[in-house]
Structures are given as structure tokens and as C-alpha cells.
Design a protein that fits this description.
Elements (H helix, E strand, L loop, with lengths): L2 H16 L6 E4 L17 E7 L12 H14 L3 E2 L2 H6 L3 E12 L5 E14 L7 E15 L6 H20 L9
Parallel strand pairs: 2-3, 2-4
Antiparallel strand pairs: 1-6, 4-5, 5-6
Helix pairs in contact: 2-4
């Protein structure tokens, strides 16, 4: 056995023993329940979804960004939110942007470190020009973790968990919003 392979096996064995490499094991970074904010999701009735960081190469590992976006949009519709395109959302004062973000770093030891999160950005109107606005993050949540390529699809579950948390917070602030089962 070569020195490099033996070294790699030693590092992986140590990581497994220490609990560093687990399929989609995560570290929680924080919550959406912030004592400093109030009713930040009130009045949203339409959203557009933007996927960031989902490489097409992840599809070979079972993580398809386009399929995940479609599932996120379906879940948001089921929660009573109108899902629109980005151009339409720009013209709607009550529309928000849902950003699904994935950052990954591939290790030379055959695993990925990742950060997955969901952000909701709302518009703050600018007085300088009619229709002008600046996007402000009104809600965010996510986690970091380590995943083996063979378990990359587990990140989908992580993303959907945070989409569901957003929906729960959205419904708490918009109890009149209609919903359909997903």
C-alpha cells in the first residue's frame, strides 16, 4: 500500500472515529426566531425562487438543482404562496425572493464540506424613484456539514427542512394564508 493511500485511510479513519465525516451531518448555525425582528414575513403573498451554487456536476451524485427548485416551488405553492418568475416579482411590491444557497468545498480526501441555507429577501422601497427598491434579508436559516459524494442527495433533505421552517414562520405571521397539502 502506498504512503499516500495509507495516509488517506488514516485521515478518513480518524475523521470517522472523531465523528467528523457523517452523511449530511450538520451543525446548526442559528434560528429564524430573532428577538430583534418582528413580523418580517407579514404580507408576502408571492415569491420567486433563485438557486445559487448548485453545480450540474452534483447531478451525478443525486443532487439535481433544477429538480430541487421545482420541489421547493411546489412546497411554497402548497403553503399558499404564489410562485412567479423573477421579472414579474420585480414589479410586485408584495413579492419576495427565496434564495436557496449551496456552497461546497471538495476535499482531497473524497468528501465535501458544505453550507446550505435558505434566505428570504423582501423589498424596501427607495424614495428616489417610483418602483425602486433595495432587497433586504428578512429571514434566513441554514447549516454547515460534511457529506460524502455518495450521500450528496442528503443535502436536498437539509434544504427542504429549512424551506419547511420558513413556511412554518410564514404561516405564523400570515394565518389567513390558504394552504394545500403537499
Amino acid at each position: 500500500m502506498s504512503k499516500h493511500r495509507l495516509s488517506l485511510l488514516s485521515v478518513l479513519a480518524a475523521a470517522l472515529v472523531l465523528g467528523c465525516v457523517r452523511p449530511a451531518q450538520a451543525i446548526w448555525l442559528g434560528g429564524s426566531h430573532d428577538d430583534f425582528s418582528y413580523a418580517t414575513l407579514s404580507g408576502i403573498n408571492a415569491v420567486t425562487v433563485n438557486m445559487v451554487g448548485f453545480s450540474p456536476r452534483f447531478k451525478r451524485y443525486g443532487l439535481d438543482g433544477a429538480a430541487l427548485k421545482a420541489e421547493v416551488e411546489q412546497r411554497l405553492r402548497a403553503a399558499g404562496l404564489k410562485v412567479v418568475g423573477a421579472a414579474e416579482a420585480r414589479t410586485m411590491p408584495e413579492a419576495a425572493l427565496v434564495v436557496i444557497n449551496l456552497n461546497t468545498v471538495e476535499s482531497p480526501y473524497y468528501y465535501y464540506s458544505y453550507s446550505a441555507g435558505v434566505k428570504v429577501k423582501q423589498k424596501v422601497p427607495l424614495p428616489s424613484r417610483k418602483g425602486a427598491f433595495v432587497p433586504v434579508t428578512a429571514w434566513s436559516n441554514g447549516q454547515t456539514g460534511v457529506v460524502l459524494p455518495s450521500n450528496m442527495q442528503d443535502i436536498k433533505g437539509v434544504v427542504m427542512e429549512y424551506v419547511d421552517r420558513f413556511i412554518s414562520d410564514y404561516r405564523a405571521q400570515n394565518p389567513q394564508a390558504p394552504s394545500t397539502p403537499h
